[in-house]
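Reopening: structure tokens for the zinc ion complex, inputs below.
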Amino acid sequence: MKLKKLSRLDSTTLQLFWDDGHVGVTPLELLRDACPCAGCQGETVLLHHYAPAPDPDPHPGKYTLKGAETVGSYALKLVWEDGHEQGLYTWEHLRSLCCCEACVERREPAAGEGPQ
Ligand SMILES: [Zn+2]
Ligand SMILES: [Zn+2]
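Re-run output (same inputs, fresh job):
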């Protein structure tokens, strides 16, 4: 599984094209909030987890995507309008953030399971 290309669906949503034919959609806000860099997700040092304080007032440009580039053959680097570009999103991570109908349905626990 590998990302083939990406495009903007609109100003707040990214469309991702995968080499297995899957076309995913992910809101930029979700992507930024899931930024895997240490500054966003905190760091675990000697079993202590240091998490950054939640941002009560997101600065302008925080959820605006400025650019994106692939890193090697395993990840995507997203560059945000506020200058943040530390996050490397691996293909697995990106795909797990997919919000298309099929992925959301698959993730939701099936209701009424069991023999009928
Ligand atoms: Zn999907
Ligand atoms: Zn980050």
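The radius of gyration is 16 Å. The first strand starts at residue 3 and ends at 10. Marking as resolved unless the reporter disagrees.
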